[in-house]
Amino acid sequence: MTSTASDRPQRVRDRRPAPERLKQIITEATTLIAERGFWGISIQDVADACGISDAGVLHHVGTKEGLLVAVLEHRDEVDIALLSQMLGIAESELKADGTLSVSLRDFCRALVARNAQQPEIVRLYSVLNAESLDPQHPAYAYFSAREVWATALFAAAAAGTANPARIARQVFAAMDGLQLRWLRNPAIDLVAEWDALAESIVRPYEMH
Predict the structure, then answer these.
(1) Transmembrane region positions (predicted)?
(2) Does residue 175 contact residue 108 with C-beta atoms inside 8 Å?
(3) pLDDT (tens digit per residue) in 3-43
(4) d(CA 133, CA 56)
(5) I need a labelling partner for 159 at 20 to 30 A (CA). Which of 20, 67, 93, 114 fits?
(6) Residue environment code for 158-184, b if the CB has 16+ CB neighbours within 10 A, otherwise e
(7) Distance (Å, rounded) from C-alpha 166 to C-alpha 173?
(8) In the chain, what are the domain boundaries?
């Protein structure tokens, strides 16, 4: 017996406003990239996760590279907003305007506490940061610029010490290393481990 078009199951159209659809696309893409890396996913994978066509995804983000940029920029906006609330400072201070009205210890602890709440996002950035060491990677420029921005934030928090830029690099590297251990072993209490580590790598700078 030959089936007709009317016999086949029909996909129910999931109509959403454009902003809501874009948010869904970014959310699903974030999860997929964190699991497989940028090279391990396709636009079709994101489309399937959203229940729409690949053309529907591209309508909102333009290209696969555009999707990646949208994911990264969205996460930065969310994190800046939440960190500013946690620290009780203006968002502009976290956009590297050269000043930061909180101590290095308080800044680092807030950042670690925030990251402890979002292992999937930390994994996403860790995977993409490693992938983008290749200059041909579409996120190479983004992560190069982000390194400058993040280091400037740490340096601003270390203002008044003998060498804020060096301290920023060392503390930043220690935090990244600890977070990688935590991603490998989620049983680690990231905040508690950072507090212990901060006693040896941050406290000496507080004494100057």
Answers:
(1) none
(2) yes
(3) 454 554 444 456 778 889 999 999 999 899 888 888 899 99
(4) 31
(5) 114
(6) beebeebeebbebbbebbeebbeebbe
(7) 11
(8) 18-206
